[in-house]
């Protein structure tokens, strides 16, 4: 009995009470953590801290999803166990934002008849592809289109970016109308076709149909959404210039990329002069090292604040690079309804090399000094009232923009695609671009190195030591 009594008295001791309290607090903390984990599992709360927001949808995609009011079906073509987890993560973002979108996984080996409905050209649909189907149309996104690839100097290729959101949002825009705007490339002046640059498929993935037209033998069709003149080696004829002017007067859209390779500019400049611009023959030379990409003839221009260039303002992106660019001049005499916005400009110290046909070693430059306009956007009229047509024009004095876009300069590609989208009045798709996987290193200055060094080497360890020491002082007399 005495032993039992001693045991009972031991539970009344101060040390036992503290031990009981500690045990109860520990149990309460464990139960609380379990409940928090159970509740957190019911929500998909995530914070995307990646530089390019790899795990988030852009504002433009969210706008498109908000406008999607009709049922849309995603069909993922995967064999069992071969699901692309990266693509599934992106698809789940779409599913969570719009209940009208549903997903069904299809095994292509077990359902060959299902694929025939969507394989109109009978080329086959590879495993890993995604079919986006709406009430009016459908689009097949092949598995190799989900990523961007870069080619190394040894000829090998590697994944450089994730293009899933870009492809899926583009498909949603297409199936909402079932219509594809038509772009016509002007031929007959030794131009460089977009197909020769490998850009044909890229333009079609942006929901455009690409065709060619010779204005000497044909008029501009009524279904022309945009007319492109890319890197001509000869000037337009007077008849072609008149057709272009007539098209623009009716609210047409025109994109021209030209450089010093075109020797005679009178008729092309006549078209541009009607909208307040003209080319200045010569090559822009940079002397400011900050604006020189490779050599003085290769410019890294400043970008203005415009719908086309605004998404490229992030300095972590690959810069726009222009090789042997030609400058533009804004005419003082022009219609008041015209608005001209420079898109790309040179440094204040840039000049124009004019003796291009001279074999002498002495460079001759014009008296026109920088900053020089290398690309510009034009609207006429600058305001819109009701259904009034608005002519739009993009003029870039560097035909090198597109060849460099195919050599890894993503910003060059985005300038081109954003120009098409701006000309076509589709601003909701203007910044839905591929997300780069390139990781930029973190650079710290001396002050930051000292601050972070003191924080992790001294402050945090001393905080833990102080907390432990205080706890020991409180418990040593228990």
Structure notes:
- The structure is a single chain.
- Helix 8 runs parallel beside helix 9.
- The protein has twelve helices and 21 strands.
- It has 478 residues and is an alpha/beta fold.
- It has helices at residues 2-11, 14-40, 59-67, 85-97, 112-116, 164-177, 200-205, 238-249, 266-273, 401-405, 410-423, 446-475, and strands spanning 72-77, 101-106, 130-133, 138-141, 147-151, 157-162, 182-186, 209-213, 224-230, 253-257, 277-280, 283-285, 298-299, 302-303, 322-323, 327-330, 339-345, 351-353, 373-380, 391-396, 435-436.
- The protein has four domains: 1-43; 54-180, Glutaredoxin, CATH 3.40.30; 182-423, Rossmann fold (3-Layer(aba) Sandwich), CATH 3.40.50; 446-478.
Note the topology.
Layout: H1 2-11, H2 14-40, H3 59-67, E1 72-77, H4 85-97, E2 101-106, H5 112-116, E3 130-133, E4 138-141, E5 147-151, E6 157-162, H6 164-177, E7 182-186, H7 200-205, E8 209-213, E9 224-230, H8 238-249, E10 253-257, H9 266-273, E11 277-280, E12 283-285, E13 298-299, E14 302-303, E15 322-323, E16 327-330, E17 339-345, E18 351-353, E19 373-380, E20 391-396, H10 401-405, H11 410-423, E21 435-436, H12 446-475
Parallel strand pairs: 1-2, 7-8, 7-9, 9-10, 10-20
Antiparallel strand pairs: 1-3, 3-4, 5-6, 6-21, 11-16, 12-18, 13-15, 14-17, 17-19, 19-20
């Amino acid at each position: 009995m005495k032993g039992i009594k001693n045991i009972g008295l031991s539970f009344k001791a101060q040390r036992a009470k503290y031990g009981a309290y500690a045990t109860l607090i520990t149990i309460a903390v464990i139960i609380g953590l379990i409940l928090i984990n159970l509740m957190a599992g019911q929500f998909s709360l995530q914070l995307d801290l990646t530089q390019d927001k790899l795990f988030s949808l852009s504002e433009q995609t969210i706008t498109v999803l908000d406008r999607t009011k009709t049922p849309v079906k995603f069909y993922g073509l995967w064999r069992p166990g071969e699901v692309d987890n990266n693509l599934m993560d992106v698809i789940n973002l779409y599913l969570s934002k719009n209940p009208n979108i549903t997903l069904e996984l299809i095994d292509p080996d077990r359902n060959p008849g299902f694929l025939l409905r969507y394989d109109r050209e009978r080329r086959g649909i590879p495993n890993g592809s995604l079919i986006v189907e709406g009430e009016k149309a459908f689009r097949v996104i092949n598995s190799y289109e989900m990523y961007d690839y870069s080619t190394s100097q040894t000829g090998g290729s590697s994944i450089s970016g994730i293009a899933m959101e870009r492809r899926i949002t583009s498909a949603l825009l297409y199936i909402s109308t079932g219509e594809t705007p038509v772009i016509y490339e002007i031929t007959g002046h030794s131009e460089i076709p977009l197909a020769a640059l490998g850009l044909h498929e890229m333009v079609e993935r942006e929901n455009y149909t690409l065709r060619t037209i010779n204005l000497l033998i044909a008029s501009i069709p009524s279904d022309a959404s945009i007319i492109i003149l890319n890197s001509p080696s000869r000037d337009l004829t007077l008849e072609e210039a008149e057709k272009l002017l007539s098209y623009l007067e009716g609210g047409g859209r025109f994109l021209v990329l030209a450089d010093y390779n075109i020797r005679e500019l009178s008729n092309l400049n006549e078209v541009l002069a009607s909208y307040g611009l003209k080319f200045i023959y010569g090559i822009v030379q940079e002397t400011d090292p900050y604006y020189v990409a490779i050599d003085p003839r290769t410019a890294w221009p400043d970008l203005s604040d415009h719908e086309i260039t605004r998404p490229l303002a992030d300095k972590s992106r690959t810069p726009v690079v222009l090789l042997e660019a030609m400058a533009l001049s804004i005419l003082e005499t022009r219609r008041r309804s015209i608005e001209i916005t420079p898109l790309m400009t040179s440094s204040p110290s840039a000049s124009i090399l004019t003796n291009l046909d001279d074999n002498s070693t002495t460079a001759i430059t014009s008296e026109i000094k920088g900053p020089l306009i290398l690309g510009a956007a034009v609207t006429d009229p600058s305001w819109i009232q009701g259904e009034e047509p608005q002519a739009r024009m993009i003029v870039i004095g560097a035909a090198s923009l597109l060849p460099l876009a195919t050599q890894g300069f993503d910003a060059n590609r985005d300038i081109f695609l954003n120009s098409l989208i701006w000309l076509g009045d589709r601003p909701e798709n203007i910044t839905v671009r591929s997300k780069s996987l390139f990781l930029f290193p973190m650079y710290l200055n001396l002050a930051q190195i000292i601050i972070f060094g003191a924080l992790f080497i001294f402050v945090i360890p001393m905080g833990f030591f102080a907390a432990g020491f205080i706890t020991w002082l409180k418990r040593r007399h228990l």
